[in-house]
Structures are given as C-alpha cells and as structure tokens.
Prior knowledge:
Elements: H1 2-22, H2 25-29, H3 43-66, H4 72-94, H5 101-120
Amino acid sequence: MAWVYLIIAAVFEAAWTFSLKFLSFSALKTLRWNTFYSPHAGLPILLPLVGYIIFGIGNIYFFSLAIKQVPTATAYAVWTAVTLVLIKVSEITFMSQRISTAEIFFMLMIMGGIVGLKTVNIN
C-alpha cells in the first residue's frame, strides 16, 4: 500500500506545483468582499490558493504514510521521479509544450529507476 501512497503523494505534488504556478499574490491583494465569490473576479484568484493549500496538505499526508513503510531515501527518490514525469506529461498535455527525444529517453530512464527501486525493495 505504501507504493500507492507514494503515487498519490506525487500526484498531489504535481498538482501543488501547478497551483503554485497559477497563484498570484498581487492578484490576491486586489480581492474585495464584494467580488470575493464572483466567478469572474474572485474565484480565478482564489482557486489556485485553495489548490495550493489542499494539494500541499494531501502531499504531506500521503508521503508521510509512505515513508513509514518504505525506506526514506527510496520513497523520496520515487516520489521526486514520479512527480517530475507527471509535471512533464501535464505540460505536454495541457500547455502544449513540446518534448524532445532526449527528454523522452531520460524520462524512460527515470521510470526504469522507479521500477528498479520497486523490484529491489519489496516492501
């Protein structure tokens, strides 16, 4: 179950990263009570902040569950690698970024390392 927790934590970390990307502190300062819940004014400013908080807490929670069962160094390596791959795939899918052959090769190497860590560390 620890490996599932690691994957969930990585998904939360990738979502946290994108909520941080879209978070604008200067826009938060412009919020007023009369536009706070407005779909056009308040919500586009508030949603990244809410995502930042929720995804951050979810990431910490699931990662803490995973490192109780998997060695910390292994858990951290897998969590980081899966997060990197998820972020890159999200950028390609949702932000129309391009990917090079070298990037594909190195992501496959990362995935190979994850599989290797999983097979060597049978917890």
